[in-house]
Amino acid sequence: MLKRQHSTFQLECGTDEAGRGCLAGPVTAAAVILPKYFRKGMINDSKQLTAEKRWELRKMIEKKALCFSVHHIYMEEIDRINILNASISAMHHCIDRLESTPQFILVDGNRFHNYKSIPHECIIEGDGKYLSIAAASILAKTYRDELMIRLHEEFPMYNWKQNKGYGTLEHREAIRKYGITRYHRKSFKLLPEQLELSL
Questions:
Q1: Annotated binding-site residue? 79
Q2: Residue 23 near residue 175, CB atoms below 8 Å
Q3: pLDDT digit string (tens) for 3-48?
Q4: Domains in the chain with CATH codes
Q5: Pairing of strands 67-73, 27-33
Q6: This model's pTM is above 0.70
């Protein structure tokens, strides 16, 4: 059973990211502030839900949340500052864009940088423990998936509509055959032998 609240503050924000381990595409973060009366429904860690259920819950979260925000950090920035800093930066951008300033921030995972003077708590596997983080995980996942499906139309040989940029055998074999695109993260180990790949 997911918990509604961690702190005693009224405006508690949950934040999470999707796509951190991918070989291609952005890392995407979401931040959500839920109302106290929010019904738990079927919300859970996005990884525990079917794609259909995630899309259904996204609509409900967007309708019922006090406010929410989603932000992509793209490949060039990931390669420049590394994936951990890019993930945290994406979360910060989301919090920046919330209509209400949170009084407390719940973060999925174990690493975060202070955001202004707002207190925060890192929760390992928080998307399976707290509603606001689970809601953020659903938004981050669905918005990123939506983008990867669009990018698939430009480079269908990598099958991003299916693997969403993760390092599946199919994706790695396509890299081996076709090389990399501008959407690939050049700082990542794209193939076991880390070939020199041309754009």
A1: no
A2: yes
A3: 999 999 999 999 999 999 999 999 999 999 999 888 767 787 788 8
A4: 12-145 (3.30.420.10)
A5: antiparallel
A6: yes
